[in-house]
Amino acid sequence: MNMLAYSKRMTYPRNAHIERETKGKRMSLQLLPSRQAQIFKLAKERGRVLVEELATYFAVTPQTIRKDLNELCDRRLLTRTHGGALFPTGSANLEYDERRAIAAEEKKAIGAAAARLIPDRASLFINIGTTTEAVANALLDHDGLMVITNNINVANHLRIYPSFEVIIAGGAVRASDGGIVGEAAVDFIEQFKVDFAVIGVSAIDADGSLLDFDFREVKVAQAILKNARRAILVADSSKFDRTAPVRIAHLSMVDIFITDRCLYPSIRDLCAESGVDLIETAGPEEAARPAD
């Protein structure tokens, strides 16, 4: 198949990001070599692609994939990260369903690791986020939990289990993800003192800052941290490659940080210095693998 025929037959789902692209950038997509076009499509669907997974998928060497990713990033179609590339989102947050699809297996493993730390009959906060939802999913074999949440998705999922007491915060419901935010939610959270807080974030800065996009959600997350005896941060490694404008807290303020891989020595050192237990679900060998 020649490239002209391929480019006519290849289609991409539309979204706001692509619609904002210039005509020159759309032409750039049409002129991509076949494998790079498929890589771009996979990145757009999943939010992130990894070198090793792509090398296996296309049956080529990791060096070949790195070259493809570098060329896609040179065209400003993807953003290079440790071990792979991200579909660029700028400073805007991704749609909630798209966020669920990013690193889904990693989030599942993180959720399972967090659930193992929470005993039966514990009380806990769970805040907004797709990784915190994965924790909620992993808690279903527990008994006698009191779960207080500002996440409608978590409440709706857990409410059908009679052994759980599910309490949902009041306040403004954010249309994009069903999160409950604002001063009313903060006041509600302040009524409790629980055993655990399970929190997710939108981004983690190299200096340990935990970041989010919505200052109203940040206020709720801060109240959650303040009113829990132990705080568990759950975040997959793609959060190291994102930015967000509003500061929630500092990594040193949590007790446990669960991620799939921590590739930043500064974050690893910060956890050690601050007494934060770092749990990497990829396992020591995979977690220590050098970044691309």
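the 2nd protein, sequnce then structure:
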Amino acid sequence: MPARQPNLYDNFLIKTAKEWPFSVLFAVLFFTGSMKKNLIVVLAGAFLFAGCFKDVVHNDADTTAYFAIANGGTASLASAPLDLTIPDSTILYVNPGIYSPITLTTDVSVKIAINDAARVAYNQQNGTNYELLPDSLFLLADSSGLVTAGARSVNIPLTIYTGKANLTKSYMLPISLTDAQGHPISTDLSTIYYNQLGSPIAGRYAITGVRTDYVGAMASGVISDTVDLSALPVQVTTTVSDSVVAVGYSDLGIVGWQYIVTFNAVTKTVSIAPNAIMINNETGFMNDSFKIDIQDYNPVTRVMHFKTEYNDASGNARVVDEYLTPQ
């Protein structure tokens, strides 16, 4: 079961709390370990985050312990993805903790809870249509944790059963910090909005078809190789937007070649294009040689049929004729 690295800020000690402005301290406390290595980025980020705490007024001498959730707030959706394309399951970590520039001298018990009202409010405010992630797709085994004295947060595991998810749907799982043993909680950053954007053409697809390699131009009729694409594993799309997905091209998805597939909701049709890796691959793809013969989509069965041609860097023709059948 793959585990995703928690968003930790527990081990970073603040030695100059009396000298730094709070906005800088906040940015340091909430940025991940890789960001700590770049002080310039941390300082710049401080100004972006300084205005997030509309509900609390701080000053450098304030010794109050304010609590929030790391990556909380509606502005941090990109930092809280639900990657439902993983075959089995994954573990995320909800990180409630202290964001004040002080050190806890006693343990603080915290509690979290699913907050569907936050999803409803987000949809109403943003004109979106996120559905609540079904109970069958996650497990929050423990809704409480302990931020120990000297620490800055606690990791509460959240298991996501990714292999069962319907990738055509947009899901959201808001989790809120509901109690910090009487300590004040940020209104703006008390909820993390785990989310997955869906698309009508997103999903898991079985591949059938063939790639035909020619010696020289296709008109030569000389075939050097054929590749049976039905031997490929199930291909999982990556959602770019609610109308655009990326999926592996032929048997070359393993090297980053992908179709960019755009869905037209009005005509119920799709259009395809090669991704940037294909276009910029000078050793395997001759620029301007890509040609689309077929780009069909059946809105009832959701089967896609693509037939394309291109020349490799030596001018040898390649023809890919494949069907993508949803699983």
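The longest strand covers residues 204-214. The domain at 204-326 is CATH 2.40.128 (Lipocalin).
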